[in-house]
Design brief:
The complex is a heterodimer of chains A (317) and B (240). Chain A is mostly helical and 317 residues long. Chain A has helices at 2-9, 17-24, 31-65, 77-92, 99-119, 127-151, 153-157, 159-167, 175-200, 206-211, 216-238, 244-256, 260-284, 293-311, 313-316. The model of chain B has no long low-confidence stretch (mean pLDDT 88). In chain B, strand 7 (192-197) and strand 8 (200-205) form a beta hairpin. Chain B has helices at residues 25-32, 55-59, 77-82, 97-109, 125-138, 155-172, 183-189, 207-210, 213-220; strands spanning 14-18, 44-45, 48-49, 62-65, 143-147, 175-179, 192-197, 200-205, 224-229, 232-237. The two termini of chain B are 33 Å apart. Chain B is α/β, with parallel strands linked by helices and 240 residues long. The chains are: A mainly alpha (317), B alpha/beta (240).
Chain lengths: 317, 240
């Protein structure tokens, strides 16, 4: 809540808190009210949705893969979604805007299923296999995006949209987009909460999960679907935003324990708050110029990832 | 590979599965648990083939105690025991009062109540072993399968585990089967011993029938001596 308030109160144009509240309640029609209602509020809500979705997706992936280094970005899920989104922009033209989220979901689903399959070669998932699969997928998706960029005339005209996808930016294009994303992320969150106790059963690995009564094929598929739904929505809204899904569940687990229902709920709230703050940093640091929010999360999350990796060296061997 | 195996488990009895490395002990256990499907033949529970049951239906009747390796995530003892109720979860995945009662009973039976809120990585190896055993009890299955349940425990805790398994078999009427490496532990704790050699049952019977010099020599080669101490069989390694 605090970070939501801060995100709305602070901006490139200074507006008095009283005016902000008045604008939110529907009063005032000056430029300040317009800035608050049409720029800041949608942007803060978008950042909250994206951060919450990525953190929940990260919690699901970490639980399923039994790997604290997993999240949509590291596993290549987001890159798959970005490829889907860019492909939609390239092939469908301006009228295809509504299909961007669908294509992002499809790309994310394909990528996360591939990572899951690749990571399980040899029977059990290891930290290293997940990371390698993610690197390979991200690089491959990145290359395909470049091919699309060069080959498609249409993309050259819509370069700004493509760059937004690639660097991670929560500049929202319309309220309809926000509403659709909120519904999708809400559905993903409910799915994640329902699956959470079954993810707990993976604590001792897949075979014990099966012995405890988990239909491991079906549950894994359900988890991957929900993950792709959340990651796809995040990519469609904000492009590639790294490390939120990695850092947030990991930090919360140390405080709240491992049970996934609590972890998923807390990850949504903390992920939302974290990305609103990151976006606030992104547009305040060099105001009035704006950094893409993906740059901020990369700057904060990159070192965190390296520190975590150093602590996992036992598991890499 | 296992061949021509015919093993029966009965309520109230502890069966130890013994044999040299690579004899197929764990494979037999996983086949009994329905994790591996036999190429030929079937595993049946009261005459019903496991292959026809869902994972959850099997889990409500057969509990498998995993080897306690290090856990990656910081679950509490109570949460670990609660995992035993996975097969009873409804659509929403919320535990029912019945589930909570089963967890409480399992915690009480293994005297884990004082530790229920502790993180599993903050308790001793013996306590962790009891926690996963309690998880299997919370499953309220009729069959309890264990793969080397004593592997990381000191001799006193090894004996305590075997006594506990026997008490559970008698008290709850469970059919218990455990893969063991320690022949003496099997002799002390099991009602019946199944000796596997190269994927076949070399001997099946009470410990005093199976742990004889000729069968041990045939299974493990020379170098082990079977002694009789107070009417119990003891197997000791020879110095030369």
């Amino acid at each position: 809540m605090l970070s939501l308030a801060a995100g709305i109160l602070i901006g490139a144009v200074a507006i008095a808190p009283g005016d902000v509240i008045a604008a939110l309640l529907g009063g005032g029609d000056g430029p300040s009210a317009t800035i608050v209602r049409e720029l800041r509020l949608p942007r803060v809500l978008a950042a909250a949705l994206v951060g919450g979705a990525l953190a929940v997706a990260g919690a699901l992936l970490q639980g399923l893969l039994r790997n604290p280094l997993a999240d949509p970005y590291v596993t290549g899920t987001s890159a798959g979604g970005a490829l889907g989104a860019v492909a939609a922009i390239a092939f469908l033209g301006p009228g295809g805007g509504a299909l961007i989220p669908v294509c992002a979901f499809a790309g994310a689903l394909l990528a996360v299923m591939l990572t899951w399959r690749l990571a399980r070669i040899g029977g059990r998932t290891t930290v290293l296999a997940v990371l390698l699969a993610g690197i390979a997928l991200s690089a491959f998706a990145g290359s395909l995006i470049t091919v699309l960029l060069v080959a498609s005339d249409r993309l050259a005209l819509r370069l700004r949209a493509v760059i937004d996808v690639l660097v991670g930016s929560v500049s929202v294009r319309g309220n309809a987009e926000l509403v659709v994303a909120a519904i999708v992320v809400g559905a993903g969150l409910v799915g994640a909460l329902m699956l959470a106790p079954r993810i707990d059963a993976y604590a001792f690995g897949e075979e014990t999960a099966a012995a405890l009564g988990i239909d491991t094929q079906r549950v894994a598929l359900a988890i991957l679907l929900v993950t792709a739904l959340l990651a796809g929505a995040a990519v469609a809204l904000a492009g590639l935003v790294g490390f939120v899904g990695l850092v947030v569940p990991h930090a919360l687990r140390a405080v709240l324990g491992a049970a996934h229902r609590r972890l998923v709920a807390a990850s949504f709230l903390a992920g939302a708050a974290a990305l609103v703050l990151a976006d606030l940093g992104a547009r305040s640091a060099f105001a009035p110029a704006e950094l893409p929010v993906g740059v901020v999360t990369g700057l904060v999350g990159g070192p965190f990832f390296v520190a975590l990796l150093a602590r996992q060296r036992r598991m890499l061997a | 590979m296992l061949h021509g195996i015919d093993v029966e488990l009965h309520p109230g009895a502890v069966v130890a599965i013994l044999g040299p490395n690579g004899a197929g002990k764990s494979t037999l256990l996983r086949t009994l648990a329905g994790m591996l499907a036999p190429v030929a033949g079937a595993v049946a529970l009261d005459g019903v083939p496991l292959a026809t049951l869902s994972r959850a239906a099997i889990a409500r009747r057969i509990a498998v105690v995993p080897q306690v390796l290090e856990l990656l995530f910081p679950f509490t003892v109570r949460e670990i025991v609660g995992l035993g109720r996975t097969a009873y979860l409804g659509w929403l995945g919320t535990p029912s009062p019945t589930d909570r009662a089963a967890v409480d009973r399992a915690l009480a039976e293994l005297e884990l109540e004082p530790l229920a809120g502790r993180r599993i990585d903050a308790v001793s190896g013996g306590e962790r072993q009891r926690a996963v055993l309690a998880m299997a009890l919370a499953q309220e299955a009729e069959v309890l399968l264990l793969d080397e349940p004593t592997v990381h425990l000191d001799p006193a805790h090894q004996r305590a585990t075997m006594l506990l398994l026997r008490a559970l078999a008698r008290g709850r009427g469970l059919a218990v089967a455990a893969v063991l490496h320690d022949l003496n532990l099997a002799a002390a704790g099991a009602d019946r011993v199944v000796l596997l050699v190269a994927g076949r049952v070399a001997a099946d019977g009470p410990p005093s029938d199976v742990l004889r010099q000729d069968t041990i020599d045939a299974a493990f080669g020379e170098g082990l001596r079977v002694l009789e101490v107070d009417q119990d069989r003891v197997v000791v390694p020879l110095r030369t």
